[in-house]
Every structure is written in structure tokens, then in C-alpha cells.
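B., you asked whether I could sanity-check this one before it goes into the benchmark set. Here's the sequence:
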Amino acid sequence: MSVRHLLAAAAAAPLGVLGLAAPAAAHVLAQPAVTDAYTLTAGRAWSLVGALLGLAGAVVGGLALARPAGRLGTGGRGAVAALAAGLAGAVVGGLVVAAAEGGPGTGYGIVGGVLSLVVGLVAAVLGGLALVRSRRTG
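And here's what the prediction gave me:
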């Protein structure tokens, strides 16, 4: 197995796991939310997970883009990690937004879902740019 196939499989593995977990996550997210403003509901927790994944991907993608020959950018590993984390954060955010039955303040986590969707897409773009740069220089 070539290194390119190994990297592609490593990048696709989290997405496959999320694809299998999507129906279960949608079922959990569709549960009625408690209307208390300070309760950590399932939707808010999932949107927090998505936002943290997207944020981690954005940080790693920024580092891989800023220092392509550094520790995180060697061979495009940082770029692939940022791309995978960003896509995972965007998928989680999209699931939260799709499963939300109410607007902001209802406990479904729609604001955090939109935030994690945006941050995940930014991380995916940064990872993609760093991956293109690492392929061009390497």
C-alpha cells in the first residue's frame, strides 16, 4: 500500500465513523430539549464537540500553512489532520443544525452547530491549502 493510499484511508476513516454514527446522533439530537438556559443538552454538547474539532483543525491547518517544513507540515500530515478535523467538525455541526427543531435559546444547540459548521469549513479550507502547498513543494 502506497503512502498516498494510506493517507487517504486515514483521512476517510473518521468520516466513515461519523457516517455510521450519524443516525444514532440524529436520534439523540432529536430528543426534546430542556428549556433551562444553563442545561447542557445533547444538542449543545454535540455542537461543542463540533466546534472544538473545527477549532483544533483550524489551529493545525494554520500552523501547517505557516510552516510547511515544520514539525506539523512534514509530508502533509498536519494538512491532512486539519482537513479531517475540519470536515468532521463541519459534519457534526451540520447534523446539529439539521436536527434542531427550534431556534436560538431552545436548547437544541443551533447556534453552536452553525458556529462549528463555519469553523469546520474554515479548518478544511486551511488544511486543503496547506495540503496543496505541501504537494507542490514536495
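One thing to flag: Residues 3-137 form one domain. Otherwise nothing jumped out at me.
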